[in-house]
Amino acid sequence: MDSSLFPSEPTTRSVLIANERTKLTATYVYAIAGSIFTVGGLAQILAVLDTSSPPGLPAPAIVGIAEIGWVTGGTLHDAARRSLKERHG
Fold first, then answer.
1. Does pTM top 0.85 for this prediction?
2. How many angstroms separate the CA atoms of 74 and 80, rounded?
3. 3-state DSSP: the chain helix, strand, coil percent, rounded to 5?
4. Which of 4, 7, 33, 87 is least surrounded by CB atoms within 10 angstroms?
């Protein structure tokens, strides 16, 4: 077998590629987390505050949906941060 196909130690190029892939994945997860937080959490509360008509859902349901959006967004954000910290020390 050709030993150049399976180097024993990672090359500088392979380390840089792995780092960029990790950063790209973390950025993608950050974007999803921000979207979930905004649409699922923040928009629910702002929609209720901005309208003069009664909401279509009871207040506990709206708060529950918002909390799910906040927790999900925060969890994804934390997961992205941890993946970068593990990868880059």
1. no
2. 10
3. 80, 0, 20
4. 4
